[in-house]
Amino acid sequence: MSAGTVSYLYAVARPLPADEAADLVGVHDTPVHLVGQGDLVAVVSPVPTEEFDETPLRENLEDLSWLEKVARAHNHVVDFMGARTTTVPFRLATIYRNEQRVQEMLREQETTLSSALDRVTGRVEWGIKVTTIPAPRAEVSPTTAPSGRSFLQQRLSQRRAADDARQQATVDAEEIDFALAELAVARRRHRPQSREISHASGENVLNASYLVAADRTEDFRNRAAHLDATTPGCRVELTGPWAPYSFALEETSADMREESRSHE
Amino acid sequence: MTGYGIPARGTPAQAPQTVGTGGSANLADILERVLDKGIVIAGDIQINLLDIELLTVKLRLLVASVDKAKEMGIDWWEHDPTLSSAGRKTELAEETVRLKERVAALEERATPPGTAGPADADDTEQQETAEHQERP
Which residues of B are less than 8 Å from A12 in CB distance? Predict the structure, then answer.
């Protein structure tokens, strides 16, 4: 490895023919290497020390445009691998001094990594976001209302209608989640996305990931589309398929078994 | 369960399902996965993303690079009254303007020109405040 670089680790995967990943590039469009150890390969690429050493890394993570570039490159590599072999993504910015250190880590963590790969073999992650469809709001203005009292009453009833709609959406979201979890091996809920970040016009009432067996994917997609069409107040948005980001950790699967039992 | 659309096409169970979110995936969807999910095994360079709540990360990022965020159309903290005093002021100012309009309209209807002074706008404002507090 050349001077001035460290090793960025994107994912660990089951081996695939070497030439399949020959064109794959990661952060800064640098070609990735596959570091093999037994039945595992680590997907790495060299990145500049001046950006990824501890101090600059901490600063760079605060820079949204830097973060976006690295996040997209990370996701691109993970996607590429996930489309070809069983892959478990690592968290963003997992950095080793060199590839030898990556190899040592693979040896030390072989059991953990192997069982993580086994858990997601033949399965993919789908994201579901349920967002309210805001009702058109009649213009209430103090200058056109017949009286001050009527103005305040109209505003109050608008607020109550919005509260009711939100409550209904929360109930709908629970039902949607339940119907989709039936087709999934595991489910994990995420924090709802802020409206302004997601650019959605409504409110995000459910943000979750589902681990779905490859042969149930078509059912899952169809059910999501059906739920979208039959839930009048909400939009059901499907994202993915993702590599199993949300199901990489063992305790996560355990949590989900717990959660799905409580639904029964 | 039945009734949910057409049956699955035969996807060979042994072949991995195509994974690919392409370049088009929403940045928020990517960030919540790459920052908050995925396997965590300590690397040689220690940045503890685990301790950072994703929302906090976003907030800090947005505040740290306001220009970039604005470029992307993300400027909600400026309007969110819980996050910015400017946002709070905007909300109150808009309310005040509406109420003043209302008062002026009422005065025009109720008061013949040249008689009694204008109604006190502050009273009306308090009514609106009381309504805010009524909400659960």
Answer: 39
**SS3 call for B26:** coil
* Interface predicted TM-score (ipTM) of this complex, two decimals: 0.84
pLDDT tens digits along B115-125: 544 444 444 44
Instruction: Name the phi and psi angles at B43, rounded to 5.
Output: -85, -170
* Per-residue pLDDT tens over the stretch A202-253: 888 999 999 999 999 999 999 999 999 999 989 999 999 999 999 987 654 4
Contacts of A228 in chain B (CB under 8 A): none
A186 in contact with chain B, both atoms CB, cutoff 8 A: no
Do strands A123-132 and A204-213 pair parallel, antiparallel, or not at all (unpaired)? antiparallel
Looking at the DSSP bridge assignments, the partners of residue A209 are: A127, A188
CA distance A96 to A103: 10
Instruction: Name which residue leads in pLDDT, A214 or B67.
Output: A214
pLDDT tens column, A67-96: 889 999 999 999 999 999 999 999 898 999
Q: Look up residue B21 and give its DSSP letter.
A: -
**What tokens does A39 get?**
């039945």
φ, ψ of residue A214 to 5 degrees: the values are: -55, -40
| Chain A residues touching residue B55 (CB < 8 angstroms) | 191, 194
Nearest C-alpha in A relative to B54: A191
- Distance from the Cα of B113 to chain A's closest Cα (Å) equals 19
**Phi and psi torsions of A40, nearest 5°:** -125, 145
Chain A within 8 Å of B6 (Cβ-Cβ)?
yes
CB A194 to CB B14 under 8 A? Answer: no
A249-253, long-range: CB within 8 Å, 24+ apart, which pairs?
Answer: A249/A116, A249/B37, A249/B39, A249/B40, A250/A112, A250/A115, A250/A116, A250/A119, A252/A186, A252/A188, A253/A119, A253/A186
Residues facing A239 on adjacent strands? A127
The model's pTM: 0.69
